[in-house]
């Protein structure tokens, strides 16, 4: 049971990283990216390949995987970001599907649908539960660092420009901001965070295959961010853990109903997630922890202050 | 000469495949035109149409034509009900929220099918015919019938939109919902009708795909990329554009076999989106 809880929380941390990355792209900068699993997968695959085939240490693999995903993020910006909302959503979805095709078919590199096994696990020399505890701590540390980093970004002038781009890119451009550059930075950093999530996943499970592209994960991450509150990093993290708990909780609900096949139980779990998603959107469209609305407060006008003094 | 025949064969295959893609592509585009929403649950409605055919044809033994009509009615009705319950309350939050919710709706519908029918791949009970050969180009009669059904569905939609009052109202709402409302057209009713016809057509597309290939719960997701690509290529909301886009993608996918491994066929749709949007940001027939 402890092992199970540890693994649930570790997956929660990985989802939290994905949600933080998505928050940077979509929540803060307003770019709907349905290709997020592409960055997740490349982070995982690059790290797996480097550690398995070249024998690099795990940390180096994770670092390069993260950088590769960041580069991919910047590259998507060049090709796709000029597209308007719906076009962008469809194009990024296509982008992830092409990545999945490459993962399935370039067997010389990715080993096709068999996947890459025997990926060194971080702290694998530890026995049983201590591995789970250590890995969870590492993941939580990564989430904490990324959370602090993205929160600093959000509060900085850089984050303000991102929100301006999201709310009205024309206004941002008129104010002299290079919108494309900001979008590229948001996609690169967000992609890098997702790549880090992929690398954390692969060195936890020790295996990666084109299964990482399963569309449910995409839904989970969007649900996490919507549930937590778009534009809010704390919401992204909380939403991710909440989603993992719902996803795992449905496992027990499905077991209560007797005489169902494994496929039917799986279907019920997905049904609950899908319906839950729609219910959350309908009732809490801004999420459970909404992004704080910032209102412009005019600075105290010294002239007006003096005027009133004089009048008094 | 050999190569020429091969190219002819690929073009013919491509046009046939493109005509099948065109049906769900116009469904997607019609809904986008009237509601300004990308409804990703088209994928699940393709599967709903296919499973309806499976029930009607393989289990009850009714002929193809009846299966097509049933698929249209069933997936159209599911479309209206699910849209009313899941998506309509979200419309005030903007089209993108609805688009993302439609992905969740897709997950729900797909798993309802999975719950009822399981994951196993089903097939229809179809007679096998000998291929027709014209000047070295082979055409399977089944393929040709599918082409005719697809063409029939498109002609019916065209006539509906062009010649009937309902069709004119629908185009009016697509053009300017506020103005249509002032003129006494209820955008609400017209939207519902558009969803019914659109999802019904997606179901018919599912029948056509089922006649060619296997039936499984996630079959819609496998074809959705070329379908969306066709709609984007033609300009979202542009119905003749979606047909043109689907035919182009169908032919391009077949011709890609000359240069690319089969496995990358479905990447053609993505490449087509990127290339098209670089040169025609509003699609090849886009005006707005």
Give a written overview of the molecule.
The complex is a heterodimer of chains A (312) and B (288). Chain A is mainly α and 312 residues long. Chain A is built from 13 helices and no strands. The longest helix of chain A is centred in the middle third of the chain and has 28 residues. Chain B has 288 residues and is mainly α. Chain B has one domain: ABC transporter involved in vitamin B12 uptake, BtuC (Orthogonal Bundle). At the A-B interface, helix 4, helix 10 and helix 12 of A face helix 4, helix 9 and helix 11 of B.
- Assess the beta-strand content of chain B as a share of residues: under 5%
Structural shape of chain A: globular
Average pLDDT confidence of chain B is 88
Largest interface chains and counts = A-B, 43 and 42 residues
**Number of distinct beta strands of chain A:** 0
Q: Beta fraction of the residues of chain A?
A: under 5%
Number of helices of chain A: 13
Radius of gyration of chain B: 19 Å
Element-by-element helix/strand order of chain A: HHHHHHHHHHHHH
Helix/sheet category of chain A = mainly alpha
The radius of gyration over CA of chain A amounts to: 22 Å
* Sheet of most strands of chain B: 2 strands, antiparallel
CATH fold assignment of chain B: ABC transporter involved in vitamin B12 uptake, BtuC
> Considering DSSP H and I runs of 4 or more, what fraction of the residues of chain A is helical?
over 70%
CATH C-level category of chain B? Mainly Alpha
Number of strands of chain B: 2
Largest beta sheet: strand ordering of chain B:
1-2
Main structural class of chain B? mainly alpha
Distance between the termini of chain A: 73 Å
Question: How many strands, what sense, and barrel or not for the largest sheet of chain A?
Answer: none
